[in-house]
Design brief:
Elements lengths: L3 E4 L9 H13 L4 E3 L11 H4 L1 H16 L4 E4 L2 H16 L1 H9 L9 E4 H18 L7 E4 L22 H8 L3 E2 L18 H17 L4 E4 L2 H9 L1 H8 L7 E3 H8 L17 H16 L1
Parallel strand pairs: 1-2, 1-3, 3-4, 5-6, 5-7, 7-8
Helix pairs in contact: 1-11, 3-4, 4-5, 6-7, 8-10
């Protein structure tokens, strides 16, 4: 099998290093070869597209051009990177004049590279049955609220593999590991995204609603696929407690970290020790309850 060209992006090399660690560990465990895109640059997420359409498109196009030299597919894990690469590809492939503008700034873009999220590889290439076989339902007993946020399922025209209003592909991955994914109404509600610095009170309010919804649905943990969502939902919990008098104590983990646990990997191998809220006590308690109910 040829290696997938993998675009980690800036966040996974910095504040979301644990996401990158878990992606690489999971793919190694599943024997899915990854090759980091050589010479990748920032895709422009999130500020570039708010400043200049040409700048944002050119940044993403440079990565697509680099990928095209080795493969016809480029995969990424970050929801924001995924969105920007998809938008740039759509805009370039539908507007020849934009391609010319991008080429004038030095990017030799050529159509032909498909942009995939790592969930696409896990579900469509590796397969649900193979995931079930490798994980042996080790997450049975764990209740997970899968949080997609704004970018993993929308806009619908760019992400045909997913249901934009009732996304399910993260659920599919974790259910294949034996987890129970809960039904809840805030799976695609915005967490406030990049307003953390300008309007932290808005982040606290929106995140409070999401955390409350997950808790009311009976979730032990929230699973995410976006560094910004993970940060807002986890790091803002003390602010929420001050503002609303509620201590959520809800772990917010990357779905690849849960998949890694199901594959028998150790927490440190998955970057779980880098999280602020350690999910292992709740994770271990949920799995122990299930084991006790089966033996009893």
């Amino acid at each position: 099998m040829n290696a997938y060209q993998y675009f980690p992006g800036c966040s996974l090399y910095g504040t979301a290093r644990e996401y990158d660690i878990s992606v690489r560990a999971v793919f190694r465990a599943l024997d899915i070869p990854l090759e980091e895109l050589e010479g990748w640059i920032c895709c422009g997420a999130t500020p570039a597209h708010a400043t200049s359409h040409l700048l944002a498109t050119s940044l993403a196009a440079e990565n697509l051009a680099k990928a095209a030299r080795k493969s016809d597919r480029l995969i990424t894990a970050c929801a924001a990177c995924y969105s920007r690469l998809l938008h740039a590809k759509h805009d370039l492939d539908s507007d020849p004049s934009l391609v010319e503008k991008v080429r004038r700034v030095g990017v030799d873009y050529r159509n032909g590279v498909e942009v995939l999220h790592i969930m696409d590889v896990l579900l469509d290439d590796f397969g649900v049955e193979a995931l079930q076989s490798r994980t042996q339902e080790r997450l049975k007993g764990l209740k997970v609220a899968c949080y997609y946020g704004c970018l993993l399922s929308r806009p619908a025209k760019l992400i045909p593999r997913e249901d934009s209003e009732r996304p399910h592909r993260m659920d599919d991955v974790l259910r294949a590991c034996g987890a129970e994914t809960v039904e809840w109404p805030y799976a695609i509600e915005c967490c406030g995204a990049g307003l953390a610095m300008a309007h932290p009170e808005i982040i606290a309010q929106l995140s409070h609603k999401i955390l409350t919804s997950a808790k009311n649905a009976g979730a032990d943990v929230i699973a995410v696929g976006c560094p910004l969502c993970q940060t807002n939902l986890e790091i803002r919990q003390p602010d929420i407690q001050k503002a609303f008098g509620v201590k959520h104590d809800m772990p917010v983990v990357y779905f690849t970290q849960l998949l890694g646990i199901a594959l028998g990997l150790q927490p440190k191998e998955l970057g779980i020790d880098r999280l602020i809220l350690n999910p292992m006590p709740k994770l271990s308690a949920a799995l122990a309850r299930q084991a006790a109910s089966v033996s009893g």
